[in-house]
Amino acid sequence: MTKKRASRGRSKGGKGHSTLVQCSNCGRWVPRDKAKKVTSRLTLVDPSLAKELRATGTYIASPTIMKSYCVSCAVYYGVVKVRSEQDRRQSGRLY
User: Fold this and answer.
1) pLDDT one-digit tens code per residue, 9-40
2) Most buried of the four, 33, 55, 58, 81, by CB within 10 Å?
3) Four-way CATH pick for 20-81: 3.30.1740.20, 3.30.70.20, 3.20.20.70, 3.40.50.720
């Protein structure tokens, strides 16, 4: 049977099984290497107040949030784009 992608949509290589994570949006269980990961920073302080605090030399912590999306949610939210067949084939070439 023909393959659509060289990596089969995953980044595990030849290691066998990978653990599952839940999609942050819909709750679907997805292999960790297939899930689309998005990191963002959370601001805990209002921007105008943060500007004043930084002027006084205060350190403002901003935690990093990591979200994992299944492929269908990642396409819906624009994390990954739908590509034409030609674009998919050209990006998968190794030579």
Assistant:
1) 888 888 888 999 999 999 999 999 999 999 99
2) 33
3) 3.30.1740.20
